Amino acid sequence: MYYIGFDLGSSSIKAALVEIKTGKSLGVVQEPETEMSMLALKNGWAEQNPEEWWKHICKAIERLKRKYAVSIADIKGIGISYQMHGLVIVDENGKPIRKSIIWCDSRAVEIGNAAFAALGQEKCATHLLNSPANFTASKLKWVKDNEPDLYAKIHKFMLPGDYIAYKLSNKINTTISGLSEGIFWDFKNDELAQFLLDHYGIDKALVPEIVDTFGLQSTVDEKGAEASGLAVGTPIFYRAGDQPNNALSLNVFNPGEVAATGGTSGVVYAVTESLSGKESTRVNNFAHVNYTKSNPRIGKLLNINGAGIQYRWLLNNLAVNSYEEMNNLASEVTIGSDGVCMLPFGNGAERMLNNMNIGTRLVNVNLNNHHKGHLCRAALEGIAFSFVYGMEILKSDGINVNVIRAGNDNLFRSDIFANTVATLIGYEIEIYNTTGAIGAARAAGLHEGDFDTYGKLIMDNDHVMTFMPFKDKEPYQKAYENWKKELELVLNNK
Question: Which of 104, 400, 426, 461 is deepest in the core (most CB within 10 A)?
Fold first, then answer.
């Protein structure tokens, strides 16, 4: 018997099958094998066709069944992870009225900024725990202002994962976690943020019915079964955005637990019970997957745009052949890179730097003594230091750290990077071999509420290694202070 999980990204859909009893993954397929198309009619815009997502979901299901010879009768539940913040609007027949305005579309920035100014920082911080910014609510307001004929046809708005669940079941619903990522949730009153809807002139009737993140949300109907190849009556047990789902995949549920990602960009996602919005202009706050009114769990999300992309830039522009070669060159250089500092912020404005765009900076290079090994180590250390800098912001917002958990990919495969972060923050970094699709599939089993067994399945199946903080922290701390001094010099003179 199996659960099936979907991870709807902006470049592809991944689908996984896991054994219910053991939590072991049979395998993961990606659809399409290249990248999904994205439409950008203007600079800063990004749209996708929701029907294309659905088409690839159906293809992925068929490939999984064929590849692993699984009967549809043996698939006992569905979990869905999806790209956050996207806007899908449908008419009374459930048909998309326009393409989805997805997470990386920035057309609604000024709308969100104006709302933040009008509503006030204190109200936004205490009720929304965020600025309205460029999130889903602001995108919906953009449609209202700029496409009134289309807006008038809206029956319901949805997030991307809600749409996939709807196509499977013909039921339109969403979750508190989903509404919070769209900035539709009032945490102080623990209800829909009616004051924001009123400010934007959005009718409450457009909001979908709310269901629990874990539990019976809906079941596959005849139309959904015919298109997807799943059995009629298959339950949808779980749904969450990709960052909360990534944390879930790493068994991050409780205060003090942190999930980290070191891909093209970096993410630190820390769970807390605090409803503090102190750093709401630099940190995003969403209802975590296990948020309840009686036991609030907030995911504080800090994004670092300039992470793995900085190391990839070096790979493409130095005379090196692989990341392995770069890591070997870096390992021959002492901690602190002999004073060479790299500020890895060349991938656009950084929210944690109050949306300043300072670019990548390379300083203290001696043309007689330094070589590409120094650049490689300075890059790894600079990215690690930016993670530590981000952790300091989270700590100032009331976060306590007990453990960090990360996937076994990208930057966390570098001993220099992982050891630098672990030593400076003074906590272990546990590495796991998992994916969002596998996590979503396993999470379908959490409708029974057995989080202890879920965590044991992850530890038994996925744990790869643990980086322990080094006892001799001094050289790392000295290097970090030098890097931080260079960063503050730039920030204070920008």
Answer: 461
